[in-house]
Design brief:
This protein is of the alpha/beta class and 424 residues long. Helix 9 crosses helix 10 and helix 17 runs antiparallel to helix 18.
């Protein structure tokens, strides 16, 4: 979990630099693929270069798929291992010099920054070409730039979160938020460092369902077409959700000082009944708990399934590629059903293909597939970088017992001030 959080903090931390570079963005051309969406009409290049994330299992899977594409199309695919966190900045420097890739790999919440810098080519894809991807995945990779909404990636990975639980302590999955509160009451004994349920008190990513299910939202507008002047994190629903969230903390409940290290340590030691986490936690949790580990979608709140934030990683075509049509063809090949299944088997990351998701045999991964149906894509607009810190601070204040409405009001004012100061 700590590793995962460092990834997101580093991504957010690159935002300021990205906007300094955005002023140099080139003018956009017509989307790759033409009106027909047929990626094979352009002259075939001798080779294509892709920047793949440098984690070992992921890289192995991509190299396998690239080799299949070479055999099928006769195009050499150069797979370059490069951290997903470094690709955006390096492309802004290497691309104009003709040294960048044809495809690069990024989380969808970076799309706003990437498009602002003119680093990615919008994709002209047919309905047939996108039919295999889940609707939420395609929403995540769409973005409105200069009044026009386009797709900017072919989805490779889906991420969200839910409830991991130890069946030796919690025998049945908590289906409602009331069930989760009952778990706290029944199994928590702070004197023995035993807890029914733990969650980090200051993390909007995991806390979002408490607010969204009561009518709160981050930015108004539709996915990819956000109204950054409309912030719904202190409306009536946010206050109601904030009160529910606050009720989980205090004496005999979740300590307001809880950290990710404490949560993971106690859970893997068998001292916690349930925790919130994502699929990246599965290997460590399984090693510690074995068959006692189970997973359930986020409990329902306000009578509806918990709406968790969703992240999508996708392949993006570089604006500087001289072979945009074939790069798009390769991106589609990398993310077809068969190759997503192969990637899942080696890398363990969830596929955003609906058929592949439905075919998952692992019960924990299958439960994640159920949660994804109720996922909300994280806003991809650059201004999202100004939301995390004020809201994380606000959540900590709520966990400490401060009044909900003033805390949320102050957080929203700080978000607005941050956006104005950043010039975004």
């Amino acid at each position: 979990m700590i590793k995962k959080q460092r990834v997101w903090f580093r991504i957010v931390g690159l935002t300021v630099l990205c906007f300094l570079l955005a002023a140099c963005a080139p003018e956009r051309e017509e989307p790759a693929g033409g009106e027909s969406g047929d990626q094979n009409t352009a002259e075939k290049p001798e080779e294509l270069t892709i920047w793949a994330n440098d984690e070992e299992a992921q890289l192995e899977a991509i190299e396998d798929i690239a080799a299949d594409y070479e055999e099928q199309e006769g195009i050499k695919v150069n797979v370059v291992a490069k951290s997903m966190l470094d690709q955006e900045q390096e492309l802004s420097l290497a691309g104009p010099e003709g040294k960048g890739p044809d495809l690069f790999f990024q989380p969808h919440d970076r799309i706003g920054n990437i498009v602002a810098q003119g680093l990615a080519e919008p994709l002209d894809l047919s309905q047939e070409q996108i039919s295999g991807y889940s609707e939420a995945a395609m929403e995540a990779v769409s973005y409105n730039y200069d009044g026009q909404t386009d797709w900017y990636g072919t989805p490779m990975v889906f991420e969200t979160y839910g409830i991991f639980y130890n069946t030796d302590i919690v025998s049945e999955a908590p289906e409602t938020i009331e069930d989760l509160q009952a778990v706290i009451e029944e199994y928590t004994n702070p004197d023995e460092e035993q807890y029914g349920f733990l969650m980090k008190p200051n993390d909007l990513y995991f806390a979002y369902p408490f607010f969204k299910n009561f009518g709160a939202y981050i930015f108004g507008g539709d996915s990819g077409e956000y109204d950054i002047t409309d912030i719904g994190l202190n409306n009536e629903g946010a206050v109601e959700g904030g009160e529910v969230y606050q009720s989980f903390f205090g004496q005999g409940k979740i300590p307001a000082s809880t950290t990710s290290d404490v949560i993971d340590g106690l859970f893997t030691e068998g001292k916690v009944g349930a925790v919130i986490n994502g699929p990246w936690a599965i290997p460590g949790y399984r090693d510690a708990l074995g068959d006692k580990l189970a997973f359930a979608p986020f409990p329902s709140l306000n009578g509806e399934p918990g709406e968790t934030l969703v992240g999508v990683k996708s392949w993006m075509v570089s604006y500087y590629s001289e072979n945009k049509d074939w790069a798009t063809d390769l991106a589609l090949f990398l993310t077809n059903k068969e190759n997503l299944q192969h990637y899942y088997e080696l890398a363990g990351e969830l596929p955003p293909n609906t058929e592949a998701l439905e075919g998952l045999e692992d019960p924990i991964h299958a439960a994640f597939a159920e949660q994804i149906k109720h996922g909300v894509p994280m806003p991809s607009t650059p201004q999202m970088a100004q939301v995390w810190e004020p809201m994380n601070n606000a959540l900590q204040f709520l966990a400490d017992g401060e009044d909900v409405q003033p805390v949320l009001d102050e957080a929203v004012e700080q978000i607005k001030a941050n956006i104005e100061a950043s010039g975004q």
